[in-house]
Design brief:
single chain, about 230 residues, four-stranded mixed beta sheet, two-stranded antiparallel ribbon, 6 helices, about 30% helix
């Protein structure tokens, strides 16, 4: 899909390529067309089995398969950074800072998250409605709200996981979990025509389209070694 003038997938590849702490970029897919785009923009394609590419297949199944392929080649990264192509509202600097936080806090997994501080959130249960991030009978101004307990939105933009955790538990999140905060507008993801247009508009409004993805020259299967820029 064309997103701000380039394939939607290319933006996620570019974000990973521009992070100096990410050495190699891979795309798992069963589509020859997607594989071609991935290699054109600097990622190495990993052919995903058909049974792991259907609507009911989990992201973990694709991640575990891709990591198994790499380990069979003798490649065993300590950390796996998982970027979802349908969440393009991200910056390479966030990946760098998140990796630093991951190491400094000695985490096992991390996810990007935003805090809906301007949203009054409710949960509907069998017992009735329950306010989540404020006291309905003690309503305060936002400036006076208690920040000790926070409601977080898992944006889906990126995850960092220790390879050992992913392979042993079959889950991208586990062990000591942390999060990297991003603005609420970066939590929007693409799952409909309307959200596609919204994300494209936000991309342009905030200038994230000013540094477009770059194609590469040379053998398409060569893993990209990041230098922090193009």
């Amino acid at each position: 899909m064309d997103f701000c003038g380039y394939p939607l997938l290319a933006w996620s590849i570019a974000a990973a390529r521009d992070c100096p702490d990410i050495g190699c970029v891979y795309v798992s897919t069963d589509s020859p067309d997607i594989m071609k785009v991935a290699e054109q923009y600097g990622a190495e394609g990993i052919e995903r089995p058909v049974e792991l590419a259907g609507d009911t297949a989990s992201s973990e199944s694709a991640l575990i398969h891709a990591c198994s392929i790499l380990m069979n080649r003798g490649i065993r990264p300590e950390r796996v950074v998982f970027l979802q192509a349908t969440s393009p509202l991200r910056e390479s600097s966030e990946l760098t800072e998140a990796l630093s936080r991951f190491d400094e806090d000695k985490l096992d997994s991390l996810f990007s998250a935003s805090e809906p501080e301007d949203f009054l959130m409710w949960r509907e249960t069998a017992a009735g409605l329950e306010s989540l991030n404020y006291a309905v009978h003690d309503r305060k101004r936002r400036q006076e709200s208690n920040t000790a307990d926070r409601i977080l939105i898992e944006t889906g933009s990126f995850y960092i996981t220790r390879l050992s955790l992913l392979m042993e538990e079959g889950n991208r999140l586990g062990g000591r979990i942390g999060y990297y905060p991003v603005p609420v507008w970066k939590s929007w993801e693409i799952d409909s025509e309307e959200s596609f247009r919204l994300c494209e508009t936000m991309m342009k409004i905030h200038g994230l389209d000013r540094q477009p993805p770059a194609t590469i020259a040379g053998p398409s299967q060569r893993p990209y070694q990041s230098t922090g820029g193009r």
